[in-house]
Amino acid sequence: MIDFAPPVASARNHWPTNQDKQNTDNMNLIRLVLFATVIAPTFAHAGCEDRLQAWTNQLHPGRKIATDFASCKAWPANPSLTLALLPLPQKGNSDDEGQYDLDILIADSNSGAIVAHDFQPSAITYDAIRLSSLSLDTARYQLTPTDRAFGVRTTQGNTSRVAPYETTALSLYVIDGTTVRRVLERLVIASNTGEWDGNCAGTFDTTTRTIDIGRAGSDGYAALKVSEKSEHRQDKVRGGSCDEGSPSLQRSSFTLEYRNGRYGVPKGLQAD
């Protein structure tokens, strides 16, 4: 913590000398510089949220963003760049069903100038399965010595009490000139489902997947090593009370190879 308390004059003099005053001025200057150093990084990347609608106006004049799901952040791998998600509700959307277009962009953190972007029409569809969250994932996805990917996580689910459902899918993107190129499309990395009577009896399933970076293939892109953990639990009524079953755990792993410009996702592991 930086102490901003004023300096104390020398105990030898009741009144500060000229030298004391000079020392005080020097200390105040040092403290001012330290204070500016501390807060400068905060101001440097503050307010990217204020640019979301401006970026939308530039790329899609006349359209509004879904502010509940739009986001942006400085890219830790390169803080001079800012990543942003612009979800755009389509005309005719209702509370019960609809679609969002999505623009994924990279901008200069200082000027706000758009460096690259990727527009995806009808990227997200909702009905009984609704969009819960949309977020940027800036983990260390170093796919080649020069290509660092970032992720977009999309979580969708329902509000059913007796048949709960929620999935989170991950897509990965790299900068490719003035475009943002998708190299991994909607790999399900988490799912939670269940069916029960609302009191006790029922089954519940949870699956999580994590990604590690593997060795580079013939085209220079690293393989993605996926580890999977699945749990299944069955609850039953026994003797008038609810017996919560012990979950059965299964682990598995598989590898996604980069071919023809992207990582192939097996059927059943890709979100709709």
List the defining traits of the structure above:
272 residues, mainly beta, 3 domains, 8-stranded antiparallel beta sheet, 4-stranded antiparallel beta sheet, 2 helices, 13% helix, 52% strand, disordered N terminus
Commentary on this structure:
With 272 residues, the chain is mainly beta. It has three domains: 14-44; 46-127; 129-272, no CATH class. Helix content is 13%, strand content 52%. It is built from two helices and 14 strands; from the N terminus they run ααββββββββββββββ. The chain has helices at residues 18-44, 52-59; strands at 71-75, 78-89, 98-108, 114-126, 130-142, 148-157, 165-176, 179-196, 202-216, 222-238, 241-243, 248-256, 258-259, 262-263. The strands form three sheets. Strands 5, 6, 7, 8, 9, 10, 11 and 12 form an eight-stranded antiparallel beta sheet that branches. Strands 1-2-3-4 form a four-stranded antiparallel beta sheet, covered by helices on one side. The longest helix has 27 residues, at 18-44. The two termini are 50 Å apart. Residues 1-21 and 23-46 have low confidence and may be disordered.
